[in-house]
Amino acid sequence: MKLARFSRIGFILAAAGSAVGLGNIWKFPYITGENGGGAFVFVYLITVLVIGFTLMIAEMLIGYLGRRDSVTNFEDLAPRDKHLWKYGGFIGLTGLIIMIFYSPVIGWTFHFVLVSLTSLPSSVAIAETNFTEFISIDLGSQVFYHTLVFLFVTTVVARGIKGGIEKLNFILMPILFITIAAMFFYASTLSGFTQAWDFMFAPDWSKLTSASLVTAVGHAFFTLSIGMATILTYSASLPKDSNLVRSSLIVIALDTGIALLAGLTLFTFLYEYGATPSAGPGLVFISLPTVFYEMGFLGNIFGFIFFVALASAGLTSAVSLVEPIIQYLVDRFSFSRLKASMASGLFFYLFGMIAILSISKEYGHYFTIGSMNFFDWADFVTASVMLPLGGLIMAIFVGHVMEKERVAAQLKTQLGAVYPLWYFSIRYIVPIALVVVMLNLVGIIEL
Ligand code: PHE
Description:
Number of domains: 1
Largest sheet: 2 strands, antiparallel
CATH architecture: Orthogonal Bundle
CATH topology: Hydantoin permease
Order of helices and strands: HHHHHHHHHHHHHHHHEEHHH
CATH class: Mainly Alpha
Bound molecules: phenylalanine
Helix content: over 70%
Shape: globular
């Protein structure tokens, strides 16, 4: 089945749209806060450069050379044991599991677009009660917003790569860039900016624990959208003669740039208005709305555009999370796009409902296993287990399974003098780093 291709700029926007998501604006600032700031940012940046960059190129290569869905690509590109390697492609399922919690959280951002216009909380205590009640009691609203996300995402992906995904990114990504730049510019004029800068860039090594190292690596994967066949699937629709190295660099620069700008902006607002940066997952939904309240009318406007931008970032990532499985169903089972989109949509819609129930006060205990509810499990299993595992499979595949000449033919000129370094990194550094991180997770190695 022939795929409609992205335009060059369309691919960059879509890949950046996938990478820049709730991870950058919601997750990055709060995990930076929780892990002590500067030292964590430093480790995260190194991981992005060393592991992220190496793997992003490898993942693009599999998609670009294979040109089909992820399962078929692994199968086609493996010189031997094709029937075994094809299972590597099923790592695309990770996206659907991420959507189980990602979609409800996009729903929260919809809710906060309205809150910004109507009733911003006047104190952190009120904000906390409002948010807790919203996510643990107000099931109806959450299901309503989750349904909107399901309908929106399914409609976009049903229209295909060109008419759906590329178009969506052409509209939403500029809105996102302009909003983040404008808010950053305003933040840089406030006095809290220096404190925010120090918090993010002056490392306090004593705050860095082994757990924060694992978090940094997991987040680097999550934020760059690597390790689950998203980038691979998009790359299958790259125009001919694309430069994979340049594309990877642009996507990584945009993703990292936006995370840093969003972090600096949020922390400036928090310092300026006396809230603490270590507020956890509630940072964007509890502390920030209070800050917007303090700003007066300007805050209503800022709140509105901020949450619209956050929703946009989430939606452009959401379409990329479901696309790998859609392409698989279309390619291998001749599903129509509509049918494939409905199938993957219904999957995350129904399990997303369970995620919503699992954080509710009334039904939560039915959906809690061990110390974690279903919602947290979906987050943990994907970010901490499946993404690193996907990265490991891809690194081994490109570094040790695919023919050397084939890899070199594509990348040697594009990487130039860096090629041997890259090849060494994909063969040894990345797999070893990932194995260490994963063993650390199950407690076999203490970093
Ligand atoms: N990168 C997205 C974010 O930061 C999430 C995502 C992960 C999207 C994996 C696609 C694949 O929010």
